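writing this on my phone so excuse typos. first protein, seq and then structure
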Amino acid sequence: MSSSIDRFIIRKLNSCEEEHTKEHLLELFMIRIEMAEQMEELMSRRKSVFLYHYVC
């Protein structure tokens, strides 16, 4: 999942002193994590379906 955007968000989170901005950055980062998890699950399902059809 680690991309330049994720590294940017983490750097900003570490240096940010404004509480509202920090909350928004954290929310954005959590959304990116959720999206990555969903994509990983989707790719896993696609792979298992492909393997099932390929083997059978």
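second protein below, same order as before
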Amino acid sequence: MAGTTSPSTGGATRRSLLAGSAAALAAALTGCDSASPPATRQSTDDAKAPVVTGHKPKGKDVIDVVADFGAKGDGRTDDSRAFARAYAYAARRVWDHVGRTVIDVPAGTYLIRSPNALLDARGGKLKANGLRFRGAGKRMTQLLFAPRRADNAYLCRNEDSWANVMFEQMGFAAATPGASFFYSYSTGQAQDYRFTECEWTGEWTYGVALDGSNTNSEMRWDACRVGGAYRKAFLYSGLSQKSLSRPQQDQFLNYWFNDMKVEYAWGNFLEFPYGGSITCRGGSYIVTGRRPDDSGDYGRTSTFFRFPRGPHHDSVQRFHAEDIRFEVRDPDTVVIDCAWDSGTVHFNDCDDTAQAFKSFAQDSSPHRYRVGAQGPLVRYDSCQLSGQHAYAAESGGSGPRARYDMCRFRNHAQQDFIKGSADRVSFVDCLGS
């Protein structure tokens, strides 16, 4: 994201960093030029080199919550204190704003009752880059989060403190229904999270809740399973929905989901009242049940991709889904509900027809858009689609804003596939039922 602050460069912007990198590359390529004296080149390079202050902290670079901090991992003993001590050890070993510790969590089931026990970075006083939690494998390392009260209880809390946080091969379960996994607040520091081969089960309010303004970006999920249920959403952008600067609030960008198994009972997968440059590639997405009660915000619907707010800052409205198999098991399952007033939405080689044979499918609308004068521009390429797609036209503008190219419609002929503003849609080489 051009123009945002990097947490490890003393306020330099990403543009300035890229410019500096380009200058360094140019210097390297011209280093054999005899017109530039070696002594001059050396002194110039030295002047630009970062100065590392202080001393490398003592202690082990890799710690074990069982061997080093006494966690039991038996599923019955409260291991909150062991995890809190492990995190405190890692925080103390930050040197020159860089983390130096890997926290290993061996195979076992760890009961955690205290909020923030896994990561407790409240207040934004620590500015650090690099923290890694490493499990023994999905379904082998399990963390049961069982706070006594679910309201505002998070297993991890990062308030403008850590960038580059990694979780690998671990499972997280909400043993207290309505607890939440991760609260991330940023005004320029919290960013670059990685989740690899992780799993979430149980009933959560939020999986990852983003708040504040500026960054909370560059987050990636690889080969993870999102199970359980979500009263709000697995990933929610812009928790407070307010900021002193709306353009800064919208700087929640660049989220990648690769080869995912999204298979949860009810709730929303991604909900973005703010921000959003989002890419989802590969995997299977299924809502297996229905909400147990009507929700004031959602009714009975469960939505994979919910973008409920129209106005946004420029360049933060982009969604791409590719090579995904969706299962729409009942009429309350929605693939996308988008109210963006600009930007782009693109589905490529996706299929949501697994349940197209069911009686409800013909009248269902699993893809829903509100389209204004500036869009969003919507495109479907080589997709197989069930039900009808709904388009509501906002005031202003005319002509197509959506295009279907070489798609197959399972429940309707092409002329009946669009519900609502069909004049906003065009078709190229498509097949109807």
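The chain is about 10% helix and 40% strand. thats all i got for now
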